Structure formats: C-alpha cells, structure tokens
Amino acid sequence: DQSLKPQTAAAQLATNNPTLTTIALEKPFCMFDSSLRPNKSYTVYLYAMMESAIAISSLVTDNRSKPLDSTFQQTSGGRLGPYKAAMFNVPNCASPPNPADVGDINKVSDVLKQYLFRVGDDETCLHDPNFLDVCNPPLAPDTTYRFKYMLVDNTDCIMKDQTLWSDPIKTRRVKLPMKIDTGPGRRSGGMIVITSILSVFVFLLLSGFLASVCSTVRGLEDSSAETRHVSQTIQQSELRPQVSSE
Asked: InterPro entries from the xrefs (predicted)?
C-alpha cells in the first residue's frame, strides 16, 4: 500500500518520544508483503532528512533505482537531503512482537528491538575511525524530520518498494534554566521525599544547636550567681566585729 509511511512508536513501548536528539519509529511490519518473492533476500533501508531539505531534494535512488548511500556527514545531518540512517532485516509480518511481553523483564528488550528503531541513538559512530556500519548519530533538538522506508533486493541491490515520506516529526526543544518549573507540582516523588528529609534534618540540627546555646548560657548564669554568693559571704565575714578574749 503506497499510502503507508513510517509512524512514531506507540507511547506504551517508547515513553518520552521524541526526545531532544532521538525519534523512535515503528518498524515496517507487513508494509512490503506484496513485494516479497520466495527464495529472495531483502533488507530494509531507513532514510532520514530534515523537513527543510525537501526543497533541495528528497530522492533516495539514482536513475537506475539504486539506493543512495548518502551519509549523515555528507548531507550535513540531513540538511542537504536524505541520508541512510539504518539497515535491518524485513520484520516478520506473520510473527509480530507481543505487546504483553513488555511486562516481562526478561522479554522487554527483545520486544523493543523487534518493534521499533530509534533514530539518533548512536553517539559514537561519528568519532570512531573504525566504525564501518551505517552511522545513526543524534538528531538536532527542536528540529523537524521526515523518514522513509525502502525495500532493497540484496542480490542486485535494487529498490523493490518504498513507503511515502513520513509526516513531519519534531524533536524536543531545550529548556532554558530560567524557564524550568521548579514548583512542587513539577517535582518527582523522590525529590519531594529527599527535600522533606533534608528539611527535618536541618530543623533537628538547629534545635540541637539552640538547646546547646541555652544550656551554655544557663550554666554561665548559675556559675556567676554562685560566685556572687561566695563573694558576698566572704565580705560579710570580714565585716563581722571580732570578740575580744579579754
């Protein structure tokens, strides 16, 4: 169906999507079934580009239907046209992942790998001289992208089918520190608990300090009163008249 196009992954399986630098997409389950032939080997290519690049070029094949191998670096991160962001096997339409398995900690990782692909998830490939795979570096924040899946015959490396370009998908915007809401309603439960514990601790510390100061002052007053009493007793003794023995 030529109306099919890449979609963002379901929120149940990809929370916080998109992020500042990544976008999680559903893999193309059952999109290319009509183009698959028995005893043939295929690979799915994923192309990405910035929305603004459509005015320059959105072509992903040459005039012989050969897929373009444009890289992230060559297209300036998708500003100048599409780049190949990923290559993976055709998802098995007859055996899609079971969303219920996400609740099983032993299966959730495999389910996510089968179900979605995260564009912008490789932070090292641009700076690794030994990296030979397709490079999928972080996307730009607050930027709109489009994506396309392509079915490629591995024998002659010819495009056999492709989806439409996706709808525009925008990465999140970086929040300035002065605009971040630090009110209680925007804090997590853990932060509130920690803040409460620290507040109680400071209160107890101040209470102990004040009690110590009061105790010290009271001790000094008692000592001063005792000193005055002793001094007065001595003075009275000295002023008492002496009785003559004669």
From this structure: Uroplakin-3
* Token pair listed for 197: 């514990």
Q: Which tokens sit at 219?
A: 């001790």
Domain boundaries, the chain: 7-174
Provide the whole-model pTM. Answer: 0.69
Contacts of 161 (CB under 8 A, 6+ apart): 32, 34, 35, 150, 151
Q: Which residues on adjacent β-strands are paired with residue 147?
A: 48
Q: Compute the mean pLDDT over every residue in the chain, rounded to the nearest whole number.
A: 82
Using the structure block, give the residue that is written with the tokens 């339409």: 93
Other C-beta atoms lying within 10 Å of the C-beta of residue 18: 23
Q: What element of type H or E holds 232? A: helix 189-239
**Each residue's pLDDT tens digit, 47-59:** 999 999 988 889 9
Triad 21, 150, 74: Cα angle to 5°: 50
pLDDT, tens only, 192-206: 667 667 776 677 777
Burial 30-63 (b: 16+ CB within 10 A, else e): ebbeeeeeeeeebebbbbbbbbebeeeeeebeee
**Residue 159 three-state SS:** strand
Within 10 angstroms of residue 172's Cβ, the number of other Cβ atoms is 16
